[in-house]
Amino acid sequence: MNTRSIHRAMAVLALCGATLAAGAAETPLERGRYLMQFIVACGNCHTPQGPNGPLVGMELAGGLRFEEPPFSAVAPNITPDKATGIGHWTDAQVVTAIRDRAAGPLRRMPLHTRRPGRA
């Protein structure tokens, strides 16, 4: 094994160690925020957009309209606000809505999961 290969292997091991340490240190809230902002990117559909991008102070407030015949949909407010968002939902209801579209505003959205037999 040459020196370059050894340095690469050490760099990969260091990166893996740092990643594992960072993952172990995060709280459930930090993990959820990471998933929401980067992996699932909820704000892409659930944050209203203005001419210069997302509207300040309106993160996840819904309202973005999708017109794709034969479908017409409006992204719902998924903020923790109890009056206008999903703040009154239990954790189980949120999980069910995301996974199965069986509760709340997501039940009308065919976009979050694939149904058997559909592309």
Please, could you describe this protein's structure?
By secondary structure, this protein is mainly alpha-helical. The protein has a domain at 40-108. Helix content is 41%, strand content 10%. The chain has helices at residues 3-25, 28-39, 43-46, 91-100, and strands at residues 49-50, 53-54, 65-68, 71-74. It has a two-stranded antiparallel ribbon with strand order 1-2. Strands 3-4 form a two-stranded antiparallel sheet. The N and C termini lie far apart (47 Å).
Give keywords.
4 strands; 41% helix; 119 residues; two-stranded antiparallel ribbon
- Gap between N and C termini: 47 Å
**Major sheet: order of its strands?**
1-2
Helix-strand makeup class: mainly alpha
Helix content: 40-55%
Are there runs of 5+ residues with pLDDT below 50, and where? 108-119
Report the mean per-residue pLDDT as an integer: 77
- The ordered string of helix (H) and strand (E) elements is HHHEEEEH
Main pleated sheet: 2 strands, antiparallel
Rg over CA atoms, rounded to whole Å, is 20 Å
Number of strands: 4
Give the overall shape, derived from the CA principal axes: elongated
Percent of sequence in beta strands: 5-15%
**How many DSSP H or I helices?**
4
